[in-house]
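Do me a favour: review this protein, sequence plus structure tokens, and tell me how the chain folds. Record follows.
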Amino acid sequence: MFRARSSAPDFIKRIVWNRKHMSTSIDPAGCPEDLLEHLRSLDPGLSLLDLGCGAGNLRAALRLRGWGGHFIGVDVSSSAIETARTANDPDAEWHVSTIDGFLPIAAKVDVVCICESLYYVDISVVPDLLERCRQALVYPNGRMVVRIAHLDRHREYVELLLRSGACASAPLYVLKP
């Protein structure tokens, strides 16, 4: 059942997520508290790439906490990205793309977040995705934070993260360059 999420063709993912996000609004409260707590020490000048950003809840929550760095949001749903753009944040950029189709990026970033969306990527391409994310990180202090709340549903992904060197404090998995 859950394998269908990652193996669906990109155009199907776009249709499903556009439909889901048709009436979405930006909701900072929709960002998991454990992820925000992990990012609380984020320097105001650092940059963050959010893969699977939806309507930009992470950006909104971080802004409410005083973070002013450059934000790059990527989501397969053009509806979600349209909603995210309504924030008119001059220090945010938005891209409609699949997670695995976006990287490599031209600019280096300090943090890559993949919150509850890694399992929408086919597991066979996740090792390459993780490597491309690592290459996008600013060395030596960059970090990638992956959140997977349902270990029982996504055990294969969690095991792959751990084999890739992630430090685990479930549901957060942190990888460094």
